[in-house]
Amino acid sequence: MSTTQRLWRWRSNPLRRREDVVEAWIVLVVWVLAVAGGALAGLVTARAAEDEYAEQRAHRHAVRAVLVSDAPRDLTVDGSPDGRVQGSVRWAAPDGTSRTGHTLVDGGLKAGARLTVWLDDRGRLVLSQPPGRVRSDVEAALFGAAAVLAVAVPVFGAGAVARAQLDRRRMAHWDQEWGLVGPRWGPKT
């Protein structure tokens, strides 16, 4: 399709209707909002996710801990989909004191098992280690793509609704015009 065919609504034409010009502006605005708004939303969201993951990597620290009691094998009680269950662990705080808390551990571990737990800067247990660099980059990109869709889909939907309204209006005008011109063409079959 040539450029002149794609831009026919913008050219001066005796057959061009007001609805055609309005539709051309709607298409232009929808594309600008979807592309520019989607790109902006995607970049901001991806950057925010990257910053959040970088902060998690900077403020979570691995500590060796000991399981205080046997971890149950039954996943129906406080279990997670990856087979981990709530377990009580003990670790040494940076000041040398012994601390105890609950976190997710592999099911079926026996008391006394050594494992790695993750703490935040305040010494509180967190449920998981921070995501690695590659994983966080992939997740940030996925969040960015979701943000692009969250902006673009409603914009395109609104544009489609507006164009459908214009089509209904055009059809009503064509019906009126045909009501005037049709009888002059001869008997109806």
> Would you give the CATH topology of the domain at 61-128?
OB fold (Dihydrolipoamide Acetyltransferase, E2P)
**What sort of overall outline do the alpha carbons produce when their principal axes are compared?**
elongated
Unreliable residue stretches: none
Total of helices: 3
The CATH architecture assignment of the domain at 61-128 turns out to be: Beta Barrel
How many strand segments?
5
Q: Beta-strand percentage?
A: 15-25%
Major sheet size, sense and barrel closure: 5 strands, antiparallel
State the CATH class of the domain at 61-128.
Mainly Beta
- Structural class, by secondary structure, is alpha+beta
Rg, please?
A: 31 Å
Name the average pLDDT: 86
Give the proportion of residues in helices.
40-55%
How would you describe this structure to a colleague?
The chain crosses the membrane at residues 21-44, 140-162. Keywords: Membrane, Transmembrane, Transmembrane helix. This protein is α+β, with helices and mostly antiparallel strands and 189 residues long. Among the domains are: 31-60 and 130-151; 61-128, OB fold (Dihydrolipoamide Acetyltransferase, E2P) (Beta Barrel). 50% of the residues lie in helices and 17% in strands. The chain contains three helices and five strands, in the order H-H-E-E-E-E-E-H. The chain has helices spanning 3-6, 18-59, 133-181, and strands at residues 61-67, 84-92, 98-106, 114-119, 125-126. It has a five-stranded antiparallel beta sheet. Strand 2 (84-92) and strand 3 form a beta hairpin. Helix 2 runs antiparallel to helix 3 (133-181). The longest helix has 49 residues, at 133-181. The radius of gyration is 31 Å and the shape is elongated. The mean pLDDT is 86.
